[in-house]
Design goal:
This protein is of the alpha+beta class. The protein is built from three helices and two strands; from the N terminus they run αββαα. The longest helix is centred in the C-terminal third of the chain and has 13 residues, at 84-96.
């Protein structure tokens, strides 16, 4: 199912209204599709000429937003602290780095 934002995308928060017409929504299988670009201070697009190559880096989507709020029946169940980018960075780091305790304490069968 596709949900479109309720408001203009260039001003203020991006809001979606998902009504309770389903029993369960799996947010881990939810995708937010954005089309973004990198512009200079004068609003010209970087990379418009072939001499300059520009690309996004890790956690780009996470740094575009200061916070993500999830509300159920008007109650905040996630977000509101404005630490979204920091939480996303820590989560990415912890899941991409091989931590020493991950394999040392696995069960052994003799």
């Amino acid at each position: 199912m596709e949900y479109l934002p309720l408001s203009e995308l260039d001003k203020g928060p991006i809001e979606f209204l998902i009504t309770g017409d389903q029993d369960f929504i799996d947010f881990s299988a939810t995708t937010l599709y954005l089309q973004a670009g990198i512009t200079k201070a004068d609003d010209n697009i970087y990379g418009a000429d072939s001499k300059v190559k520009v690309a996004f880096k890790n956690n780009t989507l996470h740094t575009l937003f200061s916070d993500i709020l999830v509300k159920v029946n008007g109650n905040i169940v996630e977000g509101g602290e404005s630490f979204y980018a920091l939480k996303a960075y820590i989560n990415t780091y912890l899941h991409s780095v091989k931590l020493p305790w991950k394999n040392n304490y696995s069960p052994q069968v003799s």
